[in-house]
């Protein structure tokens, strides 16, 4: 009977140590992901952002599909989610589709189970011919 509390204490300590290593791994992976959008931002400078459909009148274009970008604030200590960063990520994804324009549908700041705060922008990737 005396061994039962000792066994529970040992299991508790083993469980807590494995939990802390699981929490640290996503943090390291997310720090690696934060550096990748900076490389894509040079490509996205060639993509023009349209906010209104009227701006495209008279311009022939081909719709390449829906693109979105996001900015995530994982904890309260992280900087706030930014719509500007989400928009830049959206333009980078459009550039990877060989688009030269994006028609912005909407941007919003939300919260979900993965991020404390998320900024998301959605638009249509377009290939315009002038």
UniProtKB/TrEMBL annotation:
The residues forming the signal peptide are 1-19
Topology within the bilayer: Lipid-anchor
Task: Give the UniProt keywords, A-Z.
Answer: Cell outer membrane, Membrane, Signal
Regions annotated as coiled coil: none
NCBIfam families from the entry? PRK10781.1
Protein name from the UniProt record:
Outer membrane lipoprotein RcsF
As for what it does, the entry says: Essential component of the Rcs signaling system, which controls transcription of numerous genes. Plays a role in signal transduction from the cell surface to the histidine kinase RcsC. May detect outer membrane defects.
- Similarity annotation: Belongs to the RcsF family.
Its subcellular locations are: Cell outer membrane
Instruction: Name a single GO cellular component.
Output: periplasmic side of cell outer membrane
Give the UniProt record's GO annotations in the biological process aspect: intracellular signal transduction
Q: Does the keyword Protein biosynthesis apply?
A: no
Q: Which InterPro entries match?
A: RcsF
Q: Per UniProt, what is the name of the gene that codes for the protein in this document?
A: rcsF
């Amino acid at each position: 009977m005396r061994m039962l509390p000792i066994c529970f204490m040992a299991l508790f300590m083993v469980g807590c140590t494995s939990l802390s290593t699981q929490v640290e791994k996503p943090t390291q992976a997310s720090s690696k992901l934060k550096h990748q959008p900076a490389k894509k931002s040079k490509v996205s400078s060639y993509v023009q952002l349209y906010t209104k459909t009227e701006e495209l009148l008279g311009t022939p274009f081909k719709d390449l599909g829906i693109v979105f970008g996001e900015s995530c604030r994982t904890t309260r200590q992280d900087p706030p989610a930014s719509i500007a960063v989400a928009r830049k990520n959206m333009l980078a994804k459009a550039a990877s589709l060989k688009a030269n324009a994006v028609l912005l549908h909407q941007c919003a700041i939300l919260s979900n189970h993965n991020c404390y705060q998320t900024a998301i922008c959605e638009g249509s990737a377009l290939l315009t011919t002038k």
